[in-house]
Amino acid sequence: MKFFILLIFSLLNKSLCDSPESWQLGFQDPATPIMEGIINLHHDLMFFICVISIFVTWMLIRTLWLFETSQNKISSNLTHGIFIEIIWTTTPALILIVIAIPSFSLLYAMDEIVSPTITIKALGHQWYWSYEYSDYINEEYEPINFDSYMIPEEDLFVGQLRLLEVDNRMIIPIQTHIRIIVSASDVLHSWAVPSLGIKCDAIPGRLNQASLFVKREGLYYGQCSEICGINHGFMPIVIEATNLKNYITWLANKFDI
């Protein structure tokens, strides 16, 4: 009993999960309204799946038991039942309609770009990411831009995550509508951050866009989720969401103000 009490206590008081964990089975903790919607929709669908699975399993077991040779010496002549056929046709259709309503709502919300305050361009290369803050330019009319490479394992500090840390993080403010423009310079990549509920393909010669609204401060880890070559597993994404004051300080340091 003491073990279960300690287990429940630790689960209720665990730190936020914004990066993959060993033996993780569930989602990372959501940091955007979109990811919250994805998790809620998943839980709703799991309810229907569990109910249907239990019902179908019960029917199979009952059928094997009741229609076994020793239970029924004489086979039934019944081949059709209009009422039951109507039920098993309309019920799945109604379930799909119930599922479709929140599903379409979430899809439209994911595609909507809400008056972005900041626009950031993420460009995929073999095998690293580069970022451009085109809203801010210096005296030479050059925007803030930098490359983001994975930190080699031998250069990691204690507590840093292997294959997930980068030398230059993408810094964004919280509680702000941000537009991410995603493209690639060579082959197909995919800019994906699970905690933020975003996965956007990076296609050479094409611009894709997605919207972010991060609700809390933290470090959010992602990776390229498109097989893009031999070093596909070595181009991580790290987003540092901070308050507006720290974000402005970071901008000032970038411009050496």
Walk me through the structure.
The chain is of the alpha+beta class and 257 residues long. Helix content is 33%, strand content 25%. The protein is built from four helices and ten strands; from the N terminus they run H-H-H-E-E-E-E-E-E-E-E-E-E-H. The protein is elongated, with a radius of gyration of 25 Å. The N and C termini lie far apart (59 Å).
Task: Describe what is shown at a glance.
With 257 residues, the protein is α+β, with helices and mostly antiparallel strands. It contains four helices and ten strands; from the N terminus they run αααββββββββββα.
Q: Give the helices and strands as they follow along the chain.
A: HHHEEEEEEEEEEH
> Percent of residues in beta strands?
15-25%
Count of helical regions: 4
Q: Which strand order does the major sheet show?
A: 3-2-1-5-8
The whole-number mean of residue pLDDT values reads: 87
Oligomeric state, counting identical vs distinct chains: single chain
Q: Helical percent range?
A: 25-40%
Judging from the principal axes of the Cα atoms, what is the shape? elongated
Largest beta sheet, briefly? Answer: 5 strands, mixed
> How many β-strands, per DSSP?
10
Which residue ranges are poorly predicted, with pLDDT under 50 across at least 5 consecutive positions? 1-14
Taking all Cα atoms into account, the compactness measure Rg is: 25 Å
Structural class: alpha+beta
What layout of secondary structure does this protein have?
Blueprint (H helix, E strand, L loop, with lengths): L1 H11 L20 H34 L15 H30 L6 E8 L2 E10 L5 E6 L21 E4 L4 E7 L4 E5 L4 E5 L5 E5 L5 E7 L11 E7 L1 H11 L3
Helix pairs in contact: 2-3
